[in-house]
What we know:
Blueprint: H1 3-36, H2 40-68, H3 72-87, H4 94-100, H5 109-149, H6 155-177, H7 185-209, H8 223-227, H9 233-238, H10 240-259, H11 263-270, H12 276-301, H13 303-323, H14 327-355, H15 361-387, E1 393-395, E2 401-403, H16 408-417, H17 420-437
Antiparallel strand pairs: 1-2
Helix pairs in contact: 1-5, 1-6, 1-7, 2-5, 2-15, 3-5, 3-7, 5-15, 6-12, 6-14, 10-14, 10-15, 10-16, 10-17, 12-13, 12-14, 13-14, 13-16, 15-16
Amino acid sequence: MNRKRFWIALFVFSLIGQVAWVVENMYFNVFIYNMFRATPDQIALMVQASAVAATLTTLFIGALSDRLGKRKAFITIGYILWGVSILCFAFLRVDWIRALLPDAAQDCADAVAKANLIGVTLVIVFDCIMTFFGSTANDACFNAWLTDSTDETNRGKAEGISAMMPLVAILVVFGGTMWTKKDDPTHWTILYLIIGGIVLVAGVLGFFLLDETAEPDRQTTGYFETLFYGFRPRVIRSHPDLYLSLIGFTIFGISIQVFMPYLILYYQVALGLDNYVLIMAPAIVLAAVATAFYGRVYDRIGYGRSLIPALCVLLLGYTFLFLFRNTALVFIGSLLMMCGYLCGMAVYGARVRDCTPVGMAGRFQGLRIIAQVLIPGVIGPWIGRLVLRSAETVLNEDHTVSFIPNANIFLWAGVVLLPIAAVIAIERIRAGKERQRV
């Protein structure tokens, strides 16, 4: 593939894909909280349902892309349909839902509660549909394409760029929406129209930017053999480094998902930071730059020595966010947390790609998504929900009640991260034995 076109494609599809995921992972929570008064249980359910949808999609489509030897078609068409599905959210407005109810004229608590429940339900259903297209295009096939297109000489650099895109995407989305009112339905309509249109255009650009990197898999006997290849005991025994990395990645992801669904709500509601975008923007920029450089650190010093500093920085960020409410110290904690989070993502992402057998990137994307999305997306929000069960509440003008997130989510995120030390110890013991054999 043309080298210049590769880096352009990496930038475009990583950034725009992450912009879409930021809207889902961070703004859908705010959307159903502000528009439909969602509870911690409903937010957790949405994250969990999306994680299941992403995992099943990546498993089936990743294996299918290996089987057919097709990445480009799934990416381009997937991005187009992903954009269309985001556009559909523009029509989920609480005032329009209320107008369709038989008791729309009533301003009673029951009518409000019914409209809110319908709204939350529709958001969860639409989120799963959107996740299907997004995971087809991005999680399953773009990630496989990236693995196909890189090797041990440039994988850390490429992964560093890819891993910093979530923060760049946060900056883009925050910056683009900082002057809007999050409790205004029109704000959300405009946001979904713009983001959906951008993702759709990216899919069209893919026809010109992407080259096909896969060949049809003619070695296996059937699709389901390809689908379940990574779950075979023989395959697990043959690639212990890959599976140990995935276990560590899982623990890391659970820790992140304990607080991430509630992060913006914590800034906005608990700390009262109406200008949190202005506070967070410098932290996001600095963390993104650090992550880009950290990918090169991985290329130079390897997995083991690059992982531990990232985890220590993440834990330090949790400590600041748990202990302090001062704006300056919250900024420092957020910067440390984001640096640790994204650098850790870069290290684990590059490690998993390094350990993936050549020519089998698609069928192993399902395992990656289980470690990165499914288990963290189910367990993490569940822990966060338990932590916030006793959270303080506030009475809204429409007589509904909303919860106020508290700093305990960062305490438990740190506690959940600690078992990763055991995985690192096992990996070091294995590496020592391998050196002795050599």
